[in-house]
Specification:
By secondary structure, the protein is α/β, with parallel strands linked by helices. It is about 40% helix and about 15% strand.
């Protein structure tokens, strides 16, 4: 660790939700002497005493930019789960895979660097009917990679693993996040759970681990100060069924036969903002996914404020203010999903 006045930290994707929330925490931390944010656009809200560098991690120029910051820690929040404002859906692969590859190349050229933390995704495990109740970190790759996003996550993790092997003196940590929820989080899953009538898949009631948004940011912050290396699952303890989530949220549901559910969600896709990740959402909302968080608790040393049920209760207590559209009768919703767009 830097002994000359505290930690120096670079955050990629600082204009996104996770990068900006982390930056706001770090500038208030007395252990941190310098924070620099890197992104292609300015943050919409002020982040206090944070330097900003307008740069694209997909470009090889990042290898000239990063060494000049003399940071000892890099936190990569530039992996996108869904399109963000100003970042087109078709560019997700480039941001996630090419961006991570170029950033790691820049890290190799930064002599002051001591730690790299990547904000990844538990989507690498997939969502399968035959999956274990809880995936341990060693089980990545045991299930088929069925979607483009899964394949992208697997590819960027491959680059990360190779980097960690080449540079063992740099403590490298990959955080695999379960989906986050929060009343102030503008995300497709929150919009889905905020629908006046929520479409579900007939005959399926997936078990989910939904992480409170503030817990997600706190775990990212904890990883900066930890020495843990390799992949770490980030998830609340326990799991909760979709049907119970909807009961706690006071949301009526309308079951749709599985062959029609995918097209129905695609029709809602523009409103939900899921973009090209609709197929991932369909599988998650059919089979669910659970991950083992013991390494997070014991080695990362982080315990979320909320377990799986508590995170949903916290969201439900504030969900009425996040309704998407006016109240609808289930029959009206079915008609809208089945009928042509107008």
């Amino acid at each position: 660790m830097n002994d000359q006045g505290g930690r120096r930290i670079a955050i990629t994707g600082v204009s996104g939700h996770w990068g900006s929330e982390l930056a706001k925490r770090l500038v208030r931390d007395e252990r941190v002497s310098y924070v620099v944010g890197i992104d292609t656009r300015l943050p919409e809200k002020g982040l206090g005493d944070v330097d900003f560098i307008e740069a694209d991690v997909r470009s090889a120029l990042i290898s000239r930019v990063l060494p000049g910051t003399e940071v000892d820690t890099v936190v990569h929040c530039g992996i996108l789960w869904y399109p963000e404002p100003g970042k087109p859906a078709r560019a997700l692969h480039d941001f996630n895979v090419i961006g991570t590859l170029q950033l790691l190349a820049a890290c190799e050229r930064t002599p002051t660097l001591e730690r790299v933390v990547v904000r990844g995704s538990a989507a690498i495990y997939g969502s399968e009917g035959a999956a274990p109740l809880f995936f341990g970190e060693e089980l990545a790759g045991d299930m088929p990679l069925r979607t483009r996003f899964q394949r992208d996550v697997s590819e960027l993790e491959g680059y990360f693993t190779n980097f960690a092997r080449r540079r063992p003196e740099i403590a490298s940590c990959m955080l695999r996040y379960q989906p986050e929820i929060g009343a102030d989080l503008d995300a497709p899953l929150v919009r889905y759970l905020s629908l006046p009538v929520v479409p579900t898949q007939l005959g399926y009631d997936p078990r989910l681990q939904l992480l409170d948004a503030d817990d997600a940011t706190a775990s990212l912050e904890a990883a900066i100060w930890s020495d843990v290396r390799g992949p770490v699952n980030i998830a609340p303890s326990g799991a909760i069924s979709l049907s119970r989530i909807l009961r706690l949220s006071g949301r009526p549901s309308v079951p749709i036969p599985h062959p029609l559910f995918g097209p129905a969600i695609e029709r809602l896709g523009a409103r939900l903002g899921a973009g090209p990740l609709v197929s991932d959402a369909v599988r998650l909302l059919r089979f669910g996914r659970g991950v083992d968080n013991r390494r997070m608790l014991s080695e990362l040393g982080f315990k979320p404020r909320y377990d799986a049920v508590g995170a949903v209760r916290e969201l439900a207590s504030k969900l009425d203010s996040r309704r998407v559209g006016p109240p609808l009768h289930p029959g009206v919703l079915l008609g809208r999903l089945a009928g042509p767009d107008r």
